[in-house]
Amino acid sequence: MALHRAAKRNTLPIELTTRDRWIRRSATKVPLTTGDMPASSTDPRTWSSYKDATASSAGVGLGYVLSDVDDIVCLDLDHCLNPLTGRLAPWAAAIIRDAGATYVEVSPSGDGLHIWGRADVRQGRRIRRPDGTAVEVYGTGRYIAVTGRRHGSCPSILADLSAVVTKLTA
Question: Strands 22-25 and 31-32, how do they pair?
Answer without folding.
Answer: antiparallel
